[in-house]
Amino acid sequence: MQATDPYVTSTIQDSVATIEFFHPSHNSLPSNVLQKIVQAIDYADANAEVSVIVLKSGGDRTFCAGASFDEMLDISDFEAGKAFFMGFANVINACRRCTKLIIGRVQGKAVGGGVGLASAVDYCIASKYASVKLSELAVGIGPFVVGPAVERKMGLSAMSHLAINATEFQTAKWAKDYGLFNEVFDTVEQVDDYINHLCKILVKQSDAAKTELKKILWKGTEQWDLLLSDRAEISGRLILSDDAKQAMQSFKSKA
Question: What structural domains does the chain harbor?
Answer without folding.
Answer: 7-202 (3.90.226.10)
